[in-house]
Automatic annotation (TrEMBL):
Domain of life: Bacteria
Signal peptide (from-to): none
Lineage: Bacteria, Pseudomonadati, Bacteroidota, Cytophagia, Cytophagales
Record-given protein name: DUF4918 family protein
Domain Uracil-DNA glycosylase-like: 46-219
Organism: Fulvivirga sediminis
CDD domains in UniProt: UDG-F3-like_SMUG2
Length: 227
């Protein structure tokens, strides 16, 4: 099976976590026909091979990015304007997606980037509460309840073919929890933290080029190793 086939099979079979705290709802876009259509176009275009890839691990999908399109860190605007995949989604911009696709361009463009890297999240599905995005770590009860689920889903994706070095998109609670999981479950040889895209765009926009360069420098060894 190609990497694309493995990813699409995974999402086709993805189950919802149970035991969620009261008031917490799941973002599950994969039942929608438009999500199924664009994810197949995307993965078949950029992952139609058997290359191992380094995992870039976010927190969990948000309402306007992966929670809408089914493609991590890819909002409907970037999907259409950068990746040339026309779509019927509400064209809302997502801060993290804006950063990611500027970074991808700096690395060398989507074709080169996705040949070496795979976006996922600690939780493959996002959460909302009271109509707002919710991170898996915002409610300790949620984090505890879905730990087995999250570890199981990460392992299923590692089986696609993962580079031993992974990257955490987030230097705070996300890398802290990933290091805990990695020590307990031995998922990767190492996990390297990078500043979260949304944090950069929201609080450090004037230093955008500096943070993009951090990503470029961090990813260069992965790309060079494969060439």
């Amino acid at each position: 099976m190609t990497y694309a086939e493995k990813i699409l099979k995974y999402y086709d079979e993805l189950k919802l976590p149970d035991n969620l705290p009261e008031g917490v709802e799941i973002l599950y876009p994969f039942a929608e026909e438009e999500v199924q259509r664009v994810t197949r176009l995307f993965y078949n275009q950029f992952f139609n091979d058997s290359n191992k890839r380094a995992f870039l691990i976010g927190i969990n999908p948000g309402r306007f990015g992966g929670g809408a399109t089914g493609i991590p860190f890819t909002d409907p605007i970037r999907l259409e304007e950068v990746l040339s995949i026309e779509n019927d989604f509400d064209k809302k911009s997502e801060l993290s997606s804006r950063f990611i696709y500027q970074m991808i361009e700096a690395v060398g463009g989507s074709e080169l980037f996705y040949k070496h890297f795979y976006f996922t999240s600690v939780s493959p599905l996002g959460f909302v509460k009271d109509g707002k995005n919710l991170n898996y770590y915002d409610i300790p009860e949620l984090q505890r309840a879905i730990e087995p689920y999250m570890v199981s889903e990460i392992r299923k994706q590692i089986a696609f073919g993962a580079h031993p070095t992974a990257f955490s998109l987030g230097k705070g609670k996300n890398i802290s929890y990933l290091k805990y999981l990695n020590k307990k479950y031995e998922l990767f040889e190492q996990i390297v933290p990078l500043p979260h895209p949304r944090w950069v765009m929201q609080y450090r926009l004037k230093r955008l080029d500096e943070f993009i360069d951090q990503y470029v420098q961090a990813f260069a060894p992965i790309i060079n190793e494969a060439n």
